Structure of DNA polymerase delta subunit 2:
Amino acid sequence: MVPLNTDLVCCQMYERPTSSYICNCKRFIIHDLTFERQYAPYYEARLKTASDLLQRKVSQKWGPSVTVKRLCDVTGSEKVVVIGTIFKHMELHPSILKEISEEHNLIPQPVTEEYTQEDDFLILEDDLQRVVLCGNIDPQTHVTGINIAVLGYTEENGKFFVEDYCYSYVDEPDILPSLSMDKYVLLISGFGLGKADSMFPLQLLIDMITGQVGDSQSHYKFSQLVRVIIAGNSIGKEDPDPFKSRFLTRKSKSATVDSMRMLDDFMSQLVISVAVDIMPGEFDPANHLLPQQPLHPCMFPKSSKYSTFNVVTNPYDATIDGVRFLGTSGQNVRNISAYSKISDPLDALQKTLDWGHIAPIAPDSLNSYPYKDEDPFILSQHPHVYFCGNASTMGYKFSENKSVLMVAIPVFLKTFSAVMLNLRTLEVQPIVVCDVVS
């Protein structure tokens, strides 16, 4: 229990309440690091794990008497259910072969951040065969890697006509605990250190949390804050240098070191007062493949001295006072938006809940570690709070079944805002540190 700093006006001391904390990130920790295998076993392990969940959903949706067959056993125009993995055929999908052809002045690839178009189509494949899908399934709302069960029949042209479909069964979250008092968790992302624009707003936020600024009402509110979750991109993206090779992806050493020193200085002020979980992001000095491993404590010589400072994985999974939080630094959501027509981050979060997978598009277009016998991104149970970091704007709403609170955390560097969440009620309170100067 850490006392909040004294209000100099009313000389009133507040003390933070205690909270329970369980880290559920063990499945994202990579112990046996090897890159000798291909990604085919990864997809096989995903489908094998999801098949049981899909079978359960099939029986629930279409009844236990429905016929489930493998693709190689489907004959004629019989109506059957087939379970497999979706592959989305996209002409604009980036390809190293197409990049090489550009260098030889052949067909150039258009420069774009969205790779979907109207003539994209879906293919369903299992461990032996594949078939083109048509009918009542929209390619624009699906991405590669989704495990799915489709109900339909084979047409004369060899395509499988989809009458209906369903995704994996996922258990609902546990009953929300009954807390006797309000406790808060602060969700924030995208400090972008290395840019001067974020220095003052970040210091102001820390002063608000530690009670250095604000009135007595603000002091009391922030005294109920039990944990801060930083969802990636604490270090800013380096501006491109036209004189550097386009194949050089590493940051300059001096810029990264200076930014990390600033981050450690800020975190050391914060962890004196409240517990902090810091996730790596796309631009942070961590491994690029998902799941990103925790930032090394040696990068934080000041902050790591405190037990309230925690380096965690991306994705993040933890239970705070009985409320389970699951989320990412945003790479999965941005990638889904680039390869589909799902542009709203909250809609992308809803889709991943429906699909039963945090990042189905990995490893096709989102770099991921080549697992062999498991897929840690599969959802077996929904969390209470599901978030993504580094969104362009703040957003929050409950999922379609009203059981999961979905939160899009904005980029702090651009919005100077964060999200305050009440653990007792799951009520969201936007925190705006200062106005954005355009």
